[in-house]
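Researcher: We're teaching a course module on how sequence relates to structure. For the next exercise, students receive a sequence and then see the predicted structure as tokens, so they can try to spot secondary structure elements on their own. Here is the exercise chain.
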Amino acid sequence: MARRTRTRFWDPSGRRYGIPTYPRKKIPAHLRTLRQLAAEGLRPGDQGPQAQVLWCSRVPGPPRVRAAYVYDVRLALPKRTPGQRIRATAPKGRTCPECLTEAIDRRLGVCPDCAEEAAA
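Model: And here is the predicted structure for the students to work with:
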């Protein structure tokens, strides 16, 4: 016996739910969840959720409708590089702009090692 598609969650125009909605396993190929984007080395960038996926959960108790937001892979940006990640997580004002270490001499504006290299 063939399984029926959940037409309850089929709303590609977004009229019923306000955002395009698809049942599980019926998502267009260009849409990905956050975890799928991360696995591909991408991040959503400035885009908001492009659609949602709805399904009924099978946890004990009354059935609940679950949701997952999906993003367009064509609008996704690459994840941050390691250098960008270091600069983003480093404490502000205390890192050397040359070598990105935390030991900085505020009078010189750089760490002592970089100051010696500049003086030599």
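Model: If you want an answer key for the exercise: Residues 14 and 56 are 19 Å apart (CA to CA). The chain has two domains: 7-78, 82-119.
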